[in-house]
């Protein structure tokens, strides 16, 4: 099955932002602006939560994909790149064990 690379999807989203294309949903979101994009991210996140609670929901993957796309649109709108997210995640490597030392976390 073909796969969509998330970095390439981001590049395409950015291309739509910089070169608006009539009829493109991505262009529609950028035209509507930040509040619309935030609303969509919120809706899609809620749909992921609902689908995840239902073991037999066939739409779970679809909802996660929708959320990933809308988060990338939000990142492009705010000028944040996948590289920055990867760097942030990389900076956390090796920190996991520290959570066991935290006395404020109960029932770990
Ligand atoms: N990955 C996506 C993608 N995921 C979800 N969606 C759109 O997100 C919308 C989510 O559906 P909803 O029912 O929640 O929203 P809606 O009722 O259509 O629209 P709203 O009025 O609620 O905003 C659908 O219209 C989907 O088409 C996407 N639209 C585009 N892409 C990719 O973005 C790239 C650029 O595509 P264009 O937007 O067509 O230029 C391409 O690689 C596309 O495959």
UniProtKB/TrEMBL annotation:
Enzyme Commission designation: 3.6.1.31
Record-level GO BP terms: L-histidine biosynthetic process
Main location: cytoplasm
Reaction(s) catalysed by this chain's protein: 1-(5-phospho-beta-D-ribosyl)-ATP + H2O = 1-(5-phospho-beta-D-ribosyl)-5'-AMP + diphosphate + H(+)
Keywords, in A-Z order: Amino-acid biosynthesis, ATP-binding, Cytoplasm, Histidine biosynthesis, Hydrolase, Nucleotide-binding
Gene3D superfamilies: MazG-like
MF annotations from Gene Ontology: ATP binding; phosphoribosyl-ATP diphosphatase activity
Lineage, opening ranks: Bacteria, Bacillati, Bacillota, Bacilli, Lactobacillales
Pathway: Amino-acid biosynthesis; L-histidine biosynthesis; L-histidine from 5-phospho-alpha-D-ribose 1-diphosphate: step 2/9
Pfam families referenced in this protein's UniProt entry, alphabetically: PRA-PH
Name of the gene encoding the protein in the UniProt record: hisE
The organism of origin for this protein: Lentilactobacillus farraginis DSM 18382 = JCM 14108
GO CC, alphabetical: cytoplasm
Homology family: Belongs to the PRA-PH family.
Region annotation Disordered: where it falls in the sequence: 87-108
Protein name as annotated: Phosphoribosyl-ATP pyrophosphatase
Subcellular location: Cytoplasm
């Amino acid at each position: 099955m073909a796969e969509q690379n998330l970095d390439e999807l981001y590049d395409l989203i950015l291309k739509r932002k910089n070169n608006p294309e009539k009829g493109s949903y991505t262009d529609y979101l950028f035209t509507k602006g930040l509040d619309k994009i935030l609303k969509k991210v919120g809706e899609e996140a809620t749909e992921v939560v609902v689908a995840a609670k239902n073991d037999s929901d066939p739409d779970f993957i679809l909802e996660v994909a929708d959320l990933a796309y809308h988060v990338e649109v939000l990142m492009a709108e705010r000028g944040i790149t996948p590289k920055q997210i990867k760097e942030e995640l990389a900076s956390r490597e090796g920190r996991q064990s520290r959570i066991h030392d935290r006395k404020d976390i109960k029932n770990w």
